[in-house]
Amino acid sequence: QDLQIISTDENQVFVAVQEWYQTDTYNLYQSDPQGVYYSILLENVRSTKQPEENVLIDILEVRGVKGVFLANQKIDGKVTTLITYNKGRDWDFLNPPDIDMNGKPTNCKPPDCYLHLHLRWADNPYVSGTVHTKDTAPGLIMGAGNLGSQLVEYKEEMYITSDCGNTWRQVFEEEHHILYLDHGGVIVAIKDTSIPLKILKFSIDEGQTWSTHNFTSTSVFVDGLLSEPGDETLVMTVFGHISYRSDWELVKVDFRPSFPRECTDEDYESWDLTNLQGDRCIMGQQRSFRKRKISSWCIKGKSFTSALTSKVCECVNTDFLCDYGFERSAPLKSESSKCFADFWFNPEAPPEDCVLGQAYTSSTGYRKVVSNVCEGGVDLQQNLAHHMCPLIAPKGLQISIREGSLAVRPGEDITFIVRQEQGDVLSTKYQVDLGDGFKAIYVNLTMTGEPIRHRYENPGIYRVSVMAENVAGRDEALLFVQVNSPLQALNLEVVPIIGRNQEVNLTAIILPKNPNLTVFYWWIGNNLQPLLTLESFLVTKFAETGDIRVTVQVSCGSSMLQDSKVVHVFDNFHVLPLKFTKHLDMYNPNIPEWREDIGRVVTQLLAKETSIPEETLMTVVKPGLPTAADLHVLLPANQPKKKRSITSDKTIAAIKQALNAHNISFFLRGGYWVLVTLADASSDSQRIGDGSGYWAIVILFVICLVAVGAFILYKFKRQ
């Protein structure tokens, strides 16, 4: 539904993506070094809508220490704060302090109680947000939040850490605006309030003790805090107004006279960066930083540098995260867990740009965290499988008009663009027929991106086709161009398998609905003469077996669009009802694309388990919940009827055996394995053909109608 760029630092992109099922949360994804392939890091990060449709994502990069982020996760209405030290590979809760600012026990013990912080940006650019960090003050984080099982909106107590989130201390009971001076050597705090003030607080020992200072004799409404240029400055300005009708008052505060001298090497000590588990090796190195001793009263100055030493570590499992197409079974746990391939991803499949004769490697499921500098040790990327690029048949062939409209005027110049999602392009020939007598053969058409320019002189409907063919196979794309006709968006819903001479309902779904002005054009097969209706559906029959392409165009005013599906028509086939374990229902968006993916996965698993040819099986997932499906078992048409019956009985028996033995399952996000079984193990399959099987056809017909509303809501919301 939406995508927000979080960060593009260090040759890597962080994006927050709002998916179809989310309303006030986003999922956080991280790219590979090229910014092309993305892997999920954290689900359900809280978001907030601001005026003018601006969206704020509750994630904050901690300045001063690379790889550290804070994020607020919202699950079942409960918001909790998490921290990562390795760019999102592992996430942990914030440890609560043992005592409060008054020295009393907090009685906040994990796992029932943690520290949670508000991660809001300030509306006023001249004050700090709810969490304050700085590049020249590594490890120093100050933020507003609360202790408890979740973040509470109205609680804004102030907490500080000087060791990058390992230990926290409470410093104030109310939210304050924060300003760091002299590389964090002086922390200035002014209460966030609507009443006038004349007192500010400051600390020179990383918030352990606080002093007060009267910065003005007359109370002012504080509008903002500014420091002079340079991280080493000790001069700041408080600006505000005495009354709502007065001009701005600017008050300069200079802390330089408070310090008798500049710091020397003896005034500093080192501190080692560790994560919450105490590991010093973070992002592949041990890092030490300098900080001023608590007892030293001196100015750090312009020459101060915080970085002290760094030492490269040997690689361990936590230096690697899941590669594209893989997910961890326990994404919130800090301990190492295995990466599993998602059900939709085939790690051994050749890349889209794989050229015959070249080699490619398949992923082990892991890749090194970007910017991690570890060396030697464990290498989860080793032992990559090397494959030679096969000759791949063209697949996913598409033809479109660059100008975007399928309705053009006579004599108008149009440009056809041909694209191919998969398959070899060097050895593929493309036969183009523009429908008005123009025919041509191209080589490397999709690789060179060469456009096809054309002009239709006469009004009419033109069937434009592209046939891509090489030794491994072929693919075809169709486009119907209407001259003097407009363009509209739609989705064609049709049962994928049907019996010969059985009625089938073809339904076109459009938004917005406008039945009084909409005309529907239906093409069955390669017939250039369409059927025209004013209704959004057409009931028809197929007298011949085979794959029949159905194409529909809808015209409304000046807009037009088309959709095309293939219907498989058979004389004989069996139908077996299937069911899934309940975990699948949590991830079922009830849209056609998802159902097609799940159906394809189940078909492939059954074919592999039973050695039944994959082309004789088709799984059709039904709309709605609970998730269920029908397995269509196609019968060989070139055998005698008696022998065909024996073969089909053996096939059905093999499928039932595999399903009843619980051999068909696949891995799902969240650590679940989805098991596929018969909906009713005691029932026989339904056979379609030879005049029987009417009820199976009716079932599929109803499924088609139910799917209509679910898909339309998803599709147009996504756009």
UniProtKB/TrEMBL annotation:
Family annotation (PROSITE patterns): PKD (PS50093)
Transmembrane segments: 693-714
Primary location recorded for the protein, binned into one broad class: membrane
Transmembrane as UniProt keyword: yes
Top-level taxon of origin: Eukaryota
Ranges for domain PKD: 430-490
UniProt xrefs under Gene3D superfamilies: 2.10.70.80, 3.30.60.270, Immunoglobulins (2.60.40.10)
Pfam families per UniProt: PKD_4 (PF18911), Sortilin-Vps10 (PF15902), Sortilin_C (PF15901)
Keyword Transmembrane applies: yes
Signal sequence segment: none
Membrane topology: Single-pass type I membrane protein
Keywords: Cell membrane, Cell projection, Cytoplasmic vesicle, Disulfide bond, Endosome, Glycoprotein, Membrane, Postsynaptic cell membrane, Repeat, Signal, Synapse, Synaptosome, Transmembrane, Transmembrane helix
Cellular compartments annotated: Cell membrane; Cell projection, Dendrite; Cell projection, Dendritic spine; Cytoplasmic vesicle membrane
Matching InterPro entries: Ig-like_fold, PKD_dom, PKD_dom_sf, Sortilin_C, Sortilin_N, VPS10, VPS10-sortilin
GO cellular component: dendritic spine; early endosome membrane; perikaryon; postsynaptic density membrane; recycling endosome membrane
Family: Belongs to the VPS10-related sortilin family. SORCS subfamily.
PANTHER family: SORTILIN RELATED, VPS10 DOMAIN-CONTAINING RECEPTOR SORCS2
UniProt-recorded name of the protein: VPS10 domain-containing receptor SorCS2
Biological source species: Chaetops frenatus
Gene name for this UniProt entry: Sorcs2
